């Protein structure tokens, strides 16, 4: 039969097609991108995010901002996913990726208005992204990095972020020390670095603990609070009376039988404590409860014990102490014991246990902050710095920062655009223009004229110089970022180009949106 096609949809279903759908999706993506654009760079501004419950988050971290925003539009959500992907893979560059994705959408919108087919735009963007990856590789200045270069990477990642009372230099040293402590011939074990926060002191009190910090207090108040180089036992379970698997009933007819039963229980519990003491255990960690009477016996023997620890904490303690995790006290042998120094420190009403081993395979960055908001931002800055230093060591080295690499990438794309046939050339040129948004935004946020800054950057690159936007006082200047120690991991640039391209091309290809109520 002829006539119009018939779509069987629910009555409340809404459908947007063609250019209206493309325009709606692109506008949503651009809006999300613009929301974080002012946070880019060392002079980027902060955002205050207030939840329905009144919880306040103050940050300029792109991933945190987008994660806290209540975004419903599906296309806008794709930009959020860009930030999440960037954060998960390399730990930094979330704002860069989001801003780039928004600008790619803006350029695509102009090409769509000029009747360039979406498939042509997508193919051109993917070709441009491949060329951009080549250009980033050409900008790599070192892959075998020394501590000074790692310090510069860490400082660059924290520049512009709230770090309390301390400059990025001090925290950068903490980050590099932590990463070096878990580096081996196989690379950096990022999972071996944990981050513990505690309010109540200046950010400059942040330190690296060669071991693990757990939010626990001794099982009994009479237990020692410090044990140096003590023998460690790790019990995966409880230390209490064993329950019978048989559903049995016992008839007690006189006091002697009752006392005998109680004595048997007491003897069993005392036996657990004696077994630990006889083996030489001085510090005990368990995943479950320790009976109150066992706690008292352990305290009397001078044994420090902690109960109800998580499996993750026990894994870290095992790594720090070298102890073997066993199923119960009866399964414990002398060879299962490890060695660690444990100290319990009080911070107001909170108590933390510091477990440091002589050959610890894990480290903890113990972050401090004077207020909750400051501490949250210090934590985010440290997480990003740890991730980017790891990426710099393990994923392709470093490139100049401050927009210098982006200028080189844009120039590389324009040089190769002329060799690309058809309308895809327009998409490659548009991609180059989109890349320019990053140094342009850096200049704008620094207080410079963005157009003049972009012209000066291009002139410097054409003259064979490395130049970026360096913040100085109330404004900025176009100069060599390497002289100022502004460098970034190549992996951050690679991932930003990849994730932004994927999101933009996915949105551009959508020409029909069907939504149900």
Automatic annotation (TrEMBL):
Residues 1-32 are annotated as: Disordered. InterPro entries: Chaperone_TCP-1, Chaperonin_TCP-1_CS, Cpn60/GroEL/TCP-1, GroEL-like_apical_dom_sf, GROEL-like_equatorial_sf, TCP-1-like_intermed_sf, TCP-1_chaperonin, thermosome_alpha. Gene3D superfamilies: GroEL (3.50.7.10), GroEL-like equatorial domain (1.10.560.10), TCP-1-like chaperonin intermediate domain (3.30.260.10). Keywords: ATP-binding, Chaperone, Coiled coil, Nucleotide-binding. It comes from the Archaea. Signal peptide: none annotated. Belongs to the TCP-1 chaperonin family. This is Chaperonin GroEL, HSP60 family.
């Amino acid at each position: 039969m002829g006539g119009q096609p018939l779509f069987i949809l629910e009555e409340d279903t809404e459908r947007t097609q063609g250019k209206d759908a493309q325009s709606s999706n692109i506008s949503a993506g651009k809006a999300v991108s613009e929301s974080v654009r002012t946070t880019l760079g060392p002079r980027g501004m902060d955002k205050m995010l207030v939840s329905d419950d009144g919880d306040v988050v103050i940050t300029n971290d792109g991933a945190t901002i987008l994660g806290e925003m209540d975004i419903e539009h599906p296309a806008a959500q794709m930009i959020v996913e860009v930030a999440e992907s960037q954060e998960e893979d390399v730990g930094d560059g979330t704002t860069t990726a989001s801003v780039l994705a928004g600008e790619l959408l803006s350029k695509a919108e102009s090409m769509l208005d000029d009747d360039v087919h979406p498939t042509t735009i997508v193919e051109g963007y993917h070709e441009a992204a491949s060329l951009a990856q080549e250009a980033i590789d050409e900008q790599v200045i070192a892959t075998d990095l020394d501590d000074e270069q790692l310090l510069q990477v860490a400082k660059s990642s924290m520049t512009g972020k709230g770090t309390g009372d301390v400059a990025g230099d001090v925290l950068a040293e903490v980050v590099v020390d932590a990463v070096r402590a878990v580096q081996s011939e196989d690379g950096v074990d990022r999972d071996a670095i944990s981050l513990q926060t505690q309010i109540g002191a200046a950010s400059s009190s942040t330190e690296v603990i060669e071991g693990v910090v757990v939010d626990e207090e001794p099982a009994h108040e009479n237990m020692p609070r410090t044990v140096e180089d003590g023998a460690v036992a790790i019990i995966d379970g409880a230390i209490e009376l064993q329950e019978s698997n048989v559903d049995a009933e016992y008839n007690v007819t006189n006091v002697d039988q009752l006392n005998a039963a109680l004595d048997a229980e007491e003897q069993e519990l005392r036996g657990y404590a004696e077994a630990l003491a006889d083996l030489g255990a001085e510090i005990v960690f368990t995943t479950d409860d320790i009976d109150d009477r066992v706690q008292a016996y352990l305290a009397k023997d001078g044994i420090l014990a902690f109960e109800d620890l998580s499996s993750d904490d026990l894994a870290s303690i095992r790594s720090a102490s070298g102890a073997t995790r066993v199923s119960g006290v009866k399964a414990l042998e002398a060879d299962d014991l490890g060695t660690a120094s444990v100290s319990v420190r009080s911070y107001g009403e909170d108590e933390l246990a510091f477990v440091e081993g002589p050959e610890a395979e894990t480290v903890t960055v113990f972050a401090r902050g004077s207020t909750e908001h400051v501490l949250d931002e210090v934590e985010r800055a440290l997480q990003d710095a740890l991730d980017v230093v790891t990426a710099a060591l393990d994923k392709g080295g470093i490139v100049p920062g401050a927009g210098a690499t982006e200028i080189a990438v844009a120039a590389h794309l324009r040089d190769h655009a002329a060799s690309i046939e058809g309308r895809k050339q327009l998409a490659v040129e548009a991609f180059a223009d989109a890349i320019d948004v990053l140094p342009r935004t850096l200049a704008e946020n620094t207080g410079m004229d963005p157009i003049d800054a972009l012209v000066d950057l291009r002139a410097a690159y054409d003259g064979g110089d490395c130049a970026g936007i360096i913040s100085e006082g109330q404004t900025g200047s176009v100069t060599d970022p390497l002289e100022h120690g502004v460098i970034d991991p190549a992996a951050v640039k690679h991932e930003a180009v990849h994730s932004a391209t994927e999101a933009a091309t996915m949105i551009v290809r959508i020409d029909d949106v069907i939504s149900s109520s």
